[in-house]
Amino acid sequence: MLRDTVKTALRLGAAAGEALSPEIDRNIKAARAELIRTGVPEQAAESGQALIEDAIVTFCLMKLGNQNLYERYREAWEYQIDCIRKSDMGRINVQ
Q1: Could you tell me the pTM of the whole model?
Q2: What is the pLDDT of residues 39-85, one digit of tens each?
Q3: What is the dihedral of CA 6, 10, 15, 20, to 10 degrees?
Q4: Which of 32, 45, 82, 85 could disulfide-pair with 90, CB 3.0 to 4.6 Å?
Q5: Interior CA angle at 34 toward 32 and 93, to 5°?
């Protein structure tokens, strides 16, 4: 489950992970919406493709992770969006 992947990336323990689950879910939804807003087809953004999920994890790290690393995560997020849009995944509907 993507939520568990985000919890692991954030290095959260069980209690903290459970407490932050609603915020993590909200950020996952926001990341998908942002992918769509920036030109990634909705079907691709909603897919479980590895590149999509990796971008979503980066978004969550940017929003919930170490704020000293915010700019690094933001740059990575923007790069991932650009690469997804330029890939076949960003141009065609994913089956």
Answers
A1: 0.90
A2: 999 999 999 899 999 999 999 999 999 999 999 999 999 999 999 98
A3: -60
A4: 85
A5: 60
Considering just the CA atoms, what is the radius of gyration of the chain in Å? 13
Element (H, E) at 68: none
Q: CB burial class (10 A; 0-12, 13-18, 19+) of residue 13?
A: exposed
Residues sharing a CB contact under 8 Å with residue 90, sequence separation 6 or more, in sequence order: 39, 40, 41, 44, 84
Pick from 32, 41, 29, 20: nearest CA to 85: 41
Please state, in angstroms and rounded to a whole number, the distance separating the CA atoms of residues 83 and 77.
10
- pLDDT tens per residue across span 68-79: 999 999 999 999
